[in-house]
Amino acid sequence: MQMNYRRLGKSGLKVSEIGLGSWLTYGTATEAETAQACIHKAYELGINFFDTANAYNTGAAEKVMGEALKAYTRSSYVLATKVFFPMGSGPNDRGLSRKHIVEQCEASLKRLGTDYIDLYQCHRFDNETPVEETLRALDDLTAQGKVLYAGISEWSAAQITDAAERSKKLGLRPLVSNQPIYNMFERYIEKDVLQVCESEGMGQVVFSPLAQGILTGKYKPGQAAPSDSRAANDKTNGIINSYMREDVLQVAEKLEQLAGSIGATLSQFALAWVLRQPGVSSAIIGSSRPSQIEENVKAINVVLSEEILAQTEAILSEVSGFSPKR
């Protein structure tokens, strides 16, 4: 099987349709050896987009990912990380001020063991820092060669539009990507974010495409969560807890049956559904076992007909009032 690659928005950068992330796994519950095995398997299967963040287990995830990727030529993969969330107790140890962005970029470079970050993303919007300050700091880091491209995560359509207009006015390099949550249950970006990003030349690198594992078929309606699952062991995870509803699980079961009708697993079906969007450059998966990656990458070969998509919409309409916490 050959991996497919898409341009990141209108930039010249190409990323694999399936990316590998490290939010709740690397540097925490998963042992470093297993995490490295997952990264190596992903690379072997053609995944070139690896996403992490400084806040993931306070830098531990960056260290694990950086160590694993040292086995490969630096130019052969796209390394992404983020900045925003607190990295200390001080008043300047958070947000998107020039001070925090520059200091955390240097810290991330050291933890990742690299000279540059391919994609540096603003993990959330900072209401306490002028957007111009944030954009200029990112542009300066790009000019210095420490960052190649800049992006954002979970910004609203209005915030994206404003930032794009300010970048043009100031003559700064444009933001090239947005990292939102996007899956069959959480579709807020379809309202206006996708359209705004397309007009501004920004690609989506979406997280939680499998709805925290709900769209893998491991959770069944009327049954307790498996003892080794995230839902059973991470009670503080607001996203997955919001998915653990009987109507959501019933819909997931119906989707699994629909996926089976075209010879796909539920996870492959869900990933193919996300990738049906032309504005999506990559769907970022998490993994605690190499075998999960082997299964998920097969999604790039799953073809969804208009009839199947219509049936999917009919099934999804059975879920109402769904608004998970992010």
How would you describe what is shown here?
The protein is an alpha/beta fold. It has one domain: NADP-dependent oxidoreductase domain (TIM Barrel, Alpha-Beta Barrel). The protein is built from twelve helices and ten strands. The protein has helices spanning 32-44, 60-69, 98-112, 131-143, 157-170, 193-199, 230-233, 238-243, 246-261, 266-275, 290-296, 306-316; strands spanning 5-7, 14-16, 18-21, 49-51, 78-83, 117-122, 147-152, 177-178, 203-207, 280-285. An eight-stranded parallel barrel has the order 3-4-5-6-7-8-9-10, surrounded by four helices. Strand 5, helix 3 (98-112) and strand 6 form a beta-alpha-beta unit. The longest helix is centred in the C-terminal third of the chain and has 16 residues, at 246-261.
Distance between the termini: 34 Å
CATH-defined fold name: TIM Barrel
The CATH homologous superfamily name equals NADP-dependent oxidoreductase domain
Name the structural class.
alpha/beta
CATH architecture: Alpha-Beta Barrel
Radius of gyration: 19 Å
Number of helices: 12
Order of helices and strands: EEEHEHEHEHEHEHEHHHHEHH
CATH class identity = Alpha Beta
Average per-residue pLDDT, rounded, comes to 93
Amount of beta strand: 5-15%
Helix content class:
25-40%
